[in-house]
Amino acid sequence: MANVTVYNKLGDAVGSLELNDSVFGVEVNTHLMHMATVLQLANKRQGTQSAKTRAEVSGGGIKPWRQKGTGHARQGSIRAPQWKGGGVVFAPKPRDYSFKMNKKEKTLALKSALTTRVQEQKIFVIDSLTFDEIKTKQMKAVLDGLKIEKALVVLADKDENVIMSARNLPKVRTSLSGSVNVYDILKYDNLVITKDAVSKIEEVYA
Asked: What is the rounded distance in angstroms from the CA atom of residue 37 to the CA atom of residue 186?
């Protein structure tokens, strides 16, 4: 089992924690991680973009000039794509970009992402993370103590003070253990996670 250092809010090492290899020590599957990332980005797309084809643009029902004898190239409509105000070739239409992955594939992708953070030594386990008030400086101090800047902070339970304290830091995102995803883990350079959150993730995925 992988053994990682446990830190307090000041960035001091206060112990160690053995991570479950069935969650944090699997064989990394880069294909599934990529697929899970594309899935999340595709599912977030609204798919509301739209443009008109030549069949939908108003006007252009009459041939602009006769076929021959004018010196111009032959034209059938002033709403053809090459004309100003004409329709768009293969115009985008509202559509659903979302697709699905099997539950086992999603689970393995998440485990692979967590394993990469362990292998790269970019996982920081904190014994507890609570604040008495909403202060961005407090969250900044925690990250400074760990000597990191860009991080995904994973909590076991919703803590409004911690979440709001991190919200104004542009390179920090908070997530709950139940909603952590591959895209966020890979997007942020470091994974800061509480001991309770580690336990909850291991309970679900081990």
From this structure: 9
Dump pLDDT digits (tens) for 124-153: 999 999 999 999 999 999 999 999 999 999
71 & 146 share domain? no
**pLDDT at residue 145, as a whole number:** 93
Nearest to 91 by CA among 79, 103, 76, 78: 79
Check: pTM over 0.85? Answer yes or no.
no
Position 39 scores a pLDDT of: 96
Q: Are residues 12 and 51 in the same domain?
A: no
3-class DSSP state of 21: helix
- Which CATH number goes with the domain that contains 102? 3.40.1370.10
Q: Strand, helix or coil at 1?
A: coil
Q: Are residues 102 and 153 in the same domain?
A: yes
Q: Residue 95 CB: number of other CB atoms within 10 A?
A: 11
Q: Quick one: tokens of 16?
A: 């160690």
Tokens of 194: 């509480």
- Please give the single-letter amino acid code of residue 32: L
Whether residues 61 and 19 fall in one domain:
no
Residue ranges of the chain with per-residue pLDDT less than 50:
none
CB 157 within 8 A of CB 194: no
The beta strands (E) that lie in the chain are given as 2-7, 13-19, 123-126, 151-155, 172-176, 190-194
